[in-house]
C-alpha cells in the first residue's frame, strides 16, 4: 500500500517537532555518532575467547524463568497465549501424515526474564547516543535502537551474591546495596568486575517472593543504588542484571529519581539491562564466574525482548 | 477466579474422549515414560565441555535473522508490534527523571527463526512419547511438551553446505538432498555428524529468496528428504535446522508425506527442529564446526519460540 | 501472497475428512439449503412497521453493559485495550492542527453483551442447517454462518420478568424457569410471545452479582430450561436473550445436557442468542414490550460479536 | 493486585505535567463542565418519537459494511481474527451434547464502519469540553470521553447524495463539497437538516473504490470542507457521517488543516463522526430520510468502535 498522502502529512509535522530533547541534553556515545550497540562493542574475538576459558566443568544454567499469563509485571503489561490446530478443527485431517499445534500470543515484551534495549529508558527527551525520543519512538517499532541491533552478548559473567553479603535469604523491597557493598562482594568472592563483563546481582527476591507473594514481588524490589550503576559504568561492563524485575531499588531512596540506574546504564553508557535473571542456581553452586551467552530474538523495532540467557561454567 | 463448574463439565467430557491416539499409534521414548526433553537429554557436562573446545578464535554468529510484520510465514501466521509510552501521552511527564518506551506484540510464534517444540508436529493422534493430542493441546497452552521444557541447547554445531555440494548458490524449492548427499558433505568438510550434535543445513534459500521474492520463499523450499531425517535420528543428534522456513523439502516428492521429517524428528525421536537459521555467514567463513548455544524464552505451554541461537567458534 | 502449495496440500486433506457430522445428524433448515439467517428471515417490512408502532413514548434503553479487562467471562476469554497516540510520541506534533488518540484491542468476542451467531454452538458435528463443523470452522474465520450474515435485528421485543414471577430480586444459579413459568409471566404481563419476537428474560442475576461477586456471576446462572428453548422455537421467535452470560441455566439439571438450549435455538432452529442483556431498566419501567434494534458489527467470519442493542418504546 | 507504589510514583509525576493544553485553548461545552456526551444530549423522548414517525414502509438498512483482515485502514491499523474450538482439540469431546466455536481478535477499533468518540481528535492539547489530552489518554483506556459514554444514537437520519449533486457516480479524492453544495442538496431532496439530526453524505467513494482499488480508497477521499463541518455544527446535528473512511476531504485544500472537520465536530461541538457508512442502498432507494439507530458496543475507555447502525424508514 502506498501511503504518500500520509508521508506528506508527516513531513509537514516534522518541522513543528521541537520541544525537549535538544543536543544539550545528551552526550554523544564514545562509540561514535551512529552507534546503536553501546558497550557491547567491547565484545571482541579475544574477549569471547577469554570468556570461553571460564568453561571448566561444562555445567549450564538457564537464566530465564518460566512465564505465563499469571506472571506479574509492571502495569499494564500482560500476556495471553493460545494453542491452536489450524485446519484440524473438530478432528479434521489437514495433512494425511501428520497433525500439528501452532501458537499465537498477545503480550508485552517486558515480562519476566527480559533484556532492555537501549531505546527503553532515557531522559530529557533523549535515549542513548542523542537519539531523540520523538524521532525514534514510532508506534510500529523503534526506528533506531531496536532490539534487532543487540549483538550476541557473549562475555564473562559474574554473579554477586548480595543476599549472602547481608546475611539474609533475601533482601527486602526498598533495600539497596552501595558501591562499598558491591566491592566487598567482589573481593569476598574473588570475582573482580572487569571491562566487558556481564554483571548479575543475586538478592534472593524472586526466589523468595514471586511464587509466594506475587503482588509484593512486583510492587517493590531490592536493588542497586544509583551510585552502583555509575560504578558499573566506570568499570565498562556490557550488561547489568539481577534477580528482580527492575534491577534498581524500589521504592527509591529519592522518589524523584526512581529507576535512575536505568538512565545511567542504558542512556548515558549504552549498557544493557537484564531483568528477572534466575541467579539462585548459580549462587547455590557458588558459580560466581561463567561464560554468559545471550542471543535475543530479533523483532525489528522492539524495545525489549523476553530472553533466556545461558550461563556455562 | 474459581471455575469449579467448568472443571465439573470438563471432567464429564474427559470420559467421552477416545477416538484416535491409542497406545498402539506411538512408541514410548527411550528416555522414559515422563520424558519431555527427548535427545536433549544427551547434553551432559562432558558434552558441553567438549563442545566448548570448538571455540578457537572467539568469533560469534547470530543465527537468527530479523523479523517484522512483513516477514512471510506459514498461513495464517502474522506479527504486529506496537511501541508505546505509557503515562507519557502527549509529552506528559510520567517520571521526573526519565522517559521510557514499552512494547507489545500480537504474533504467532512460528515466524522466522524458530525452534519447534516436541508438541508441534505429531501423527496418528500422538505427539512425542505417546502424548495424546487431545490430552495436551489445551487452548491456553500445551499441558505437556511446552517450550518451557526445552533445556539450554549447548552442543557441538555442524553446518553442512549443501548448496556448495550441488555447486549452486542456492538449491531450488522442491529440491532435496539425500543421505548420500549428506554423507558426502560430512566427508568433504571433515565434519562427521556425531551423537549430541546440532546439525544445520545451508541451502542458500533464505539468502537468495527471502528479500528478493518473499512469496516464492514461503511457498516452497529445498530441504531434507525423509530418509535424511531418519539418518540424523540414527546418529542421535539433538536438533536439526536449516536456512529454510521448514527444513523439510516442499513440495515433497510424495505429497502425502509432506513434512514427514518433522514427524520423524519431533515425534518419533524427540529431536528439536530449528528453522530459518542464518547459516550464510558460517559457510562463507567455512565455519563448519562450532559451539551452538540456544536458550529459548520460556513461555509456559508455548509450542514454538522465536529464537536467535549463537554459534561460537 | 500466493499459497498454491498450501491449497494443494489442503485439497488432498479434504478427501480424508469424514468422521462425525453425517447428513443424518442434522435437519436442513426450513429456510432453504443455503440459508445462513435462520428465523431472522421472519423480519419483513410489515413486521418492522408493526414493531415500530410499539414506540409510544420515545424512551430508549441501552441493552449492552460496559465491559473492560476485569469483566469475567467464560474461560479462556479475556480482553485487553490500549489507547495510543501514533506519531505523537513524547508530544511530537503529528499534524499541525490536531491531536488524536487511537485504540487497539486483543479480545475474545464472547465477553459481556454479545450475540451468538449460528456457528457458535452445534452438535453431532454440525451447526445450523447441516453446516459441518469441519467444513466451516476455519482458523481465520467461519466460512459460513459468520456474524456478517446476521441481518439487522429489528423486531418486537418482549422482556419477561422472571425474578418478579418468583418473588425475588434475583434468581439463583442453577434455578431454572419452566414453560409454565414463562406462560404465566406472558399472561401476567399481557405480553404474549409472538412469531418474529425477540424475547429477553430478566432474572436479576447480572444486576445482583456482576459487580458484587464476579466469580459467582460467571460460575453459574439461573436460566431457561431446555423445554423453554423448545417452546420459544415453537413460537418462532427470532432471538432469545437474558440478563445472564449464557441464557441457559447452569449447572444444568442434567449435567450431560449443559447449554442444550443453545443447541436447540442456534442449531436446530436458527434462533440467535443474546447474552448479558441489561434488562433491569426495562423491568423497573415495566417496559415489557418495545421495538428492539440491533446492528451487530460485521467482522467477516466472526462467531460472536459484542453488542449494544437498543430498546425503544 | 495493589499497585500503591506505582500510584505514588505517578502522583509525583502529575505535579510536573503542564505543557500544552491550558484552559485558554478550549471552550467549555454548553452542556456543562462535566459533559461527555455532546450534542447527543439533544436526544429526548420527543425527538425519538418524532424520528420514529419516519418509519413508513418498514424497510431496514445495514449501514455497516463487512470488514476483515484485508480491509485497508489508516496506518498502522490492522485486524486479525481467529476461530477456535476450546477443549475440542483434534475432535476431543468437550461436552457430551454439543460442540462450539469461539473467536478472538487482535484489532484496531478504527477500521471500516466506525464511530469516533469525543476523545478521538482534539487540538491544542485538548479534547472536547476542555478535557486535557495528558489527563484522559491513559494507555489502558480513556479515563474520560470513552466510547462507553456514547448514548444510544436514535434520531432522524438524513443522507445527502453529493455524488448525484455533482452528476457523477462517485466524487474524487481531494474533491470537497461546500456549504452551498450541501444546501443545494438539502433543497433538492427536500430534506432540510434539522437540530438533532444524524447527517450522512453519499459520495460514492466506497462503492466505487474499496473493492476495485483499496490502496486508492485509503490514500485519499472526497469529503466535507471545513466550512461544512461548521455549518453542520451551527445546525446542531448530533452526528455526521459519510461513505468514506474519514468524512473530511483528503488531501485537504490546506495541508496544514487536514481533518480539521474532525476538530470542529468532535472537539469544538461534541458531534460524533460516523465513518465508512454504507449509504449506497439508501440513495439508490432515494431513502433520504429515516430513523437512525446506533448502539455502539461499550468497551470502557475505547476511543472508537466498529459499528453497524441501522436505518429504518
Give a description of the structure.
Four copies of one chain form a homotetramer. Chain A has 313 residues and is of the alpha/beta class. Helix content of chain A is 24%, strand content 21%. Chain A contains ten helices and 17 strands. Chain A has helices at 4-16, 45-52, 133-136, 162-166, 179-189, 205-209, 214-219, 226-234, 260-269, 280-284; strands spanning 60-62, 79-84, 99-100, 102-108, 114-116, 121-122, 126-127, 131-132, 153-161, 176-177, 198-202, 223-224, 239-242, 272-275, 289-294, 304-306, 310-312. In chain A, the strands form four sheets. The first copy, chain A, has a nine-stranded mixed beta sheet with strand order 1-17-15-9-11-13-14-5-16. Chain A has a two-stranded antiparallel ribbon with strand order 2-4. Chain A has a two-stranded antiparallel ribbon with strand order 7-8. In chain A, strand 7 (126-127) and strand 8 (131-132) form a beta hairpin. In chain A, helix 8 packs parallel to helix 9. Chain A is globular and about 65 Å long. Mean pLDDT of chain A is 93; it is low at 1-23. Chains in contact: A-B, A-C, A-D, B-C, B-D, C-D. Chains A and B meet through helix 2, strand 1, strand 2, strand 3 and strand 4 of A and helix 2, strand 1, strand 2, strand 3 and strand 4 of B.
Amino acid at each position: 500500500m502506498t501511503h504518500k498522502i500520509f508521508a506528506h502529512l508527516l513531513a509537514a509535522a516534522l518541522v513543528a517537532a521541537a520541544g525537549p530533547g535538544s543536543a544539550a541534553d545528551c552526550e554523544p556515545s564514545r562509540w561514535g555518532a551512529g552507534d546503536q550497540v553501546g558497550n557491547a562493542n567491547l565484545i571482541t574475538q579475544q574477549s569471547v575467547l577469554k570468556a570461553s576459558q571460564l568453561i571448566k566443568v561444562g555445567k549450564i544454567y538457564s537464566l530465564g524463568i518460566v512465564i505465563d499469563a499469571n506472571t506479574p509485571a509492571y502495569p499494564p503489561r500482560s500476556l495471553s497465549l493460545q494453542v491452536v490446530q489450524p485446519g484440524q478443527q473438530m478432528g479434521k485431517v489437514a495433512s494425511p501424515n501428520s497433525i500439528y499445534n501452532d501458537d499465537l500470543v498477545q503480550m508485552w515484551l517486558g515480562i519476566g526474564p527480559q533484556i532492555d534495549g537501549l531505546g527503553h529508558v532515557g531522559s530529557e527527551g533523549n535515549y542513548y547516543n542523542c537519539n531523540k525520543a520523538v524521532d525514534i519512538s514510532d508506534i510500529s517499532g523503534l526506528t533506531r535502537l531496536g532490539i534487532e541491533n543487540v549483538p550476541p552478548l557473549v562475555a564473562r559473567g559474574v554473579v554477586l551474591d548480595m543476599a549472602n553479603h547481608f546475611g539474609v535469604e533475601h533482601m527486602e523491597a526498598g533495600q539497596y546495596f552501595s558501591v562499598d557493598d558491591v566491592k566487598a562482594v567482589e573481593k569476598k568472592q574473588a570475582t573482580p568486575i572487569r571491562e566487558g563483563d556481564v554483571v548479575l546481582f543475586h538478592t534472593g527476591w524472586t526466589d523468595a517472593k514471586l511464587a509466594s507473594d506475587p503482588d509484593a514481588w512486583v510492587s517493590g524490589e531490592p536493588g542497586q543504588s544509583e551510585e552502583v550503576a555509575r560504578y558499573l559504568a566506570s568499570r565498562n561492563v556490557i550488561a547489568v542484571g539481577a534477580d528482580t524485575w527492575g534491577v534498581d531499588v524500589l521504592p527509591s531512596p529519592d522518589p524523584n529519581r526512581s529507576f535512575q540506574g536505568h538512565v545511567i546504564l542504558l542512556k548515558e553508557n549504552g549498557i544493557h539491562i537484564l531483568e528477572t535473571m534466575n541467579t539462585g542456581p548459580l549462587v547455590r553452586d557458588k558459580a560466581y564466574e561463567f561464560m554468559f551467552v545471550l542471543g535475543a530474538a530479533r523483532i525489528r523495532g522492539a524495545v525489549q525482548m523476553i530472553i533466556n540467557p545461558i550461563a556455562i561454567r
